[in-house]
Amino acid sequence: MLLQKELNQLEEYINSFEKINPSISSKSIGWHIDHSLKVINSVVNALKESDPTAYKWKFNFVRSFVYTFNYFPRGKGKSPKRVLPPKELIKEDIFDQIVQAKLNLEIVIALPAKSNFKHPYFGRLNLRQTFKFLRLHTNHHLKICRDILI
User: Fold this and answer.
1) pLDDT digits (tens, 9 = 90+) for 31-68
2) Closest C-alpha among 90, 67, 88, 79 to residue 42
3) How far, in Å, CA of 106 to CA of 89, rounded?
4) Alpha helices in 50-126 (DSSP H)
5) 8 Å CB contact between 55 and 125
């Protein structure tokens, strides 16, 4: 399954969800886990609701740069409010989101290739581009979690 490795790694970090290292991030490991899961689940929901016939490829420099170098610069993006974690994080809620993400990713595999969603910086992404985005985004936050623990 796509993103299984990343979901397993997010799950492994839950026991350290309260840890913070201000020199790396002002947010806790739990914040990064919760945010990553909210992104996965909201993007998959957008894919499920999308109209594949409406997808048209369009060049996007920012997307091309990030996808070529497989790298998100830290501190440059601003997340939409709907994928920001709540002020108070609860472990059980994070576990529930992991379960939902696993279910969502099983469903999304069967969607048409032109299923899509609109990313605020990368423009409209089809299914293949979306999986790459989700993998890059999740790994970006996993690296931050690893750095917090060092």
Assistant:
1) 999 999 999 999 999 999 999 999 999 999 999 999 99
2) 79
3) 26
4) 61-69, 91-108
5) no
